[in-house]
UniProtKB/TrEMBL annotation:
Pfam families with a match to the protein in the record: Abhydrolase_6
Similarity comment: family membership: Belongs to the peptidase S33 family.
Signal peptide: none
Classification via PANTHER family: 2-SUCCINYL-6-HYDROXY-2,4-CYCLOHEXADIENE-1-CARBOXYLATE SYNTHASE, PROLYL AMINOPEPTIDASE
Source organism, top-level taxon: Bacteria
Entry coiled-coil feature ranges: none
Descriptive protein name: Alpha/beta hydrolase
InterPro entries from the UniProt entry: AB_hydrolase_1, AB_hydrolase_fold, Serine_prot/Carboxylest_S33
């Protein structure tokens, strides 16, 4: 499947951006231009079922295969947020970027014994603008508007890849390229034991103090600062 993409910049270096569930490439409205100013050609995808990309079967493997089919291999850096981080971890060996950044990746459930109810995610399709603003008091109003627009273009059936099971088994055993794991404070998807294991296997792990799950919208400056040495 060829995914819809959005681009910023024409630099000699290449950066790839992969969004989380319920979102699309518009979520990177500040990150894309910031990387372009640093000399990157930036390419952001809409995952299948999101934005202007086609619909289809929804599984982590399909999401990962789409990245490989759509994006150039050998990019200088790839950033994946949430579901995008999970997807990137399944595609990174084939994409072969110089560096990979996993922003609060969806590698595990908050409670590994508690199944995730896909209906909770699917019900987000109809959330109001006021409710989005209340849930995310640190977001810029434009980010709230973007969330409303991306939800309108999102296929809620993507939620059902969860299939009512806990999200387990996705924490990588080792980094295939130099890799940073960037965490919210606290992260509900990467726990303390996982952090210890990730560091021991060669990942660098950084926490953006006070930031929620969507770090790049909750604290843009903190998000960018956390990438020092990686972009």
């Amino acid at each position: 499947m060829q995914l819809h993409t959005r681009e910023w910049g024409t630099g000699d270096r290449t950066a790839l951006l992969v969004h989380g569930i319920m979102s699309d490439s518009r979520t990177w409205r500040r990150v894309g231009p910031a990387l372009a100013e640093r000399g990157y050609r930036v390419i952001a995808v809409d995952l299948r079922g999101h934005g202007r990309s086609p619909r289809g079967e929804y599984t982590p493997r399909h999401f990962a295969d789409d990245l490989v089919d759509t994006l150039p291999a050998g990019a200088d850096v790839v950033i994946g947020h949430s579901l995008g981080g999970l997807t990137l971890s399944l595609a990174v060996q084939r994409l072969r970027p110089s560096r990979a950044i996993y922003s609060d990746p969806a590698w595990a459930s908050p409670d590994p014994e508690q199944p995730l109810d896909p209906e909770v995610f699917a019900s987000g399709k109809n959330v109001t603008r006021d409710h989005i603003a209340q849930l995310n008091p640190r977001w810029d109003p434009e980010d709230v508007d973007v969330e409303v627009a991306t939800l309108a273009d999102w296929d809620a059936d993507t939620s059902y890849f969860l299939d009512g099971r806990p999200l387990t088994g996705f924490v990588p055993d080792r980094p295939f390229v130099p890799s940073l794991v960037q965490l919210a404070d606290p992260s509900f998807l990467v726990g303390a034991e996982d952090v210890t294991r990730l560091r021991a296997s060669g990942f660098e792990v950084r926490t953006v103090t006070g930031a929620g799950h969507t770090i790049h919208r909750d604290d843009f400056e903190g998000f960018m600062k956390s990438l020092d040495g990686w972009i």
